[in-house]
Amino acid sequence: MNEIMIERHHLPQVLTVGKFNVEEPWIHRVRHLNINTMLVIVEGKLLICEDGMDYEVPKNHIFFFKAGCKQWGKRTIKPPAKWYWVSFLPIAMPLEGQVIKMPKIVAFDCPHAIFSHMETMEQIYLNHDAFYKEQLNGMLYELFFKWLLSSQRMQEESSSESISDKVMLILKREIRNQFSTELIANQLGMNYSYIGRKFKSETGKTILEAYQELKIRSAIDLLTFETLNISEVSDILGYPNPYYFSRVFKNVTGLSPRDYLKQMYQPTVNQEDKG
User: Fold this and answer.
1) C-alpha span between 210 and 166 (Å, rounded)
2) Which residues form the HTH araC/xylS-type domain (predicted)?
3) Do strands 5-7 and 10-22 pair parallel, antiparallel, or not at all (unpaired)?
């Protein structure tokens, strides 16, 4: 995908900054540049081909042209469309070297902040104030690493979507209802036995054990921070009766609800009155 590699001992050196408005049907011309270029799509979409690969880059996305690649338009871009561009080269800096791979296309969730940042860069470039190049280099570098951090967070969130994570989300939603293997299987669209095996291999617990622990943690919160007695908490969390609730509570914590509460510091509630 002709990704741009940025080494940690290099900073981007900004060459040009500008804004392009598509006000009538327009097709990107053929070119072969020896500089990297970043495009920030403000409106519409960019239709471009780079080294034989077609790209359709929508609003609120960033696209990187890589130096040395042939770029051209195959399809007409219809108005309205608008984007900022920043052309840059690497400049050596005395930092520890390590290659950072920039994603080819980057989505961003704060358009106003990005567009404002780009507008500031454009004004700095046009005004040619003192140290304007250094300002631009720093602002571009800042954007790069905001996007890299955002991309890393999204990858971590995506990779964390294991079966156990999905099951835990369901259990938290159903914390005040009866345990249902059928509900879990239906929501995940998988066989419950398979889900249970995967959950146990990932967490070391059965789904029922995890569910009971979640319910008891919720019970502890209700008993600690609400003016509720044991019977009321048992009813809220969907237990058939307070005796069964107390038995599950002791299995999870090693103490009965009353004994557990006696060992906790609660200056606003008289524990002897609860239950």
Assistant:
1) 13
2) 165-263
3) unpaired
Helix axes 163-173, 192-203, angle to 10 degrees: 100
CATH 2.60.120.10 residue ranges of the chain are 5-159
Alpha-carbon dihedral angle through residues 158, 164, 167, 169, given to the nearest 10 degrees: -50
Strand locations in 214-268 (E)? none
Residues 47-89 pLDDT 10s: 999 988 999 999 999 999 888 889 999 899 999 999 998 888 7
Domain 5-159 classification at class level: mainly beta
**Count of C-beta atoms within a 10 Å radius of residue 275:** 18
Tokens of 145: 């690493």
Residues of the chain with CATH 1.10.10.60: 163-273
Name the CATH topology of 163-273.
Answer: Arc Repressor Mutant, subunit A (1.10.10)
pLDDT exceeds cutoff 60 at 175? yes
Q: What H or E segment, with its residue span, contains residue 90? A: strand 81-92
Tokens of 86: 């920043």
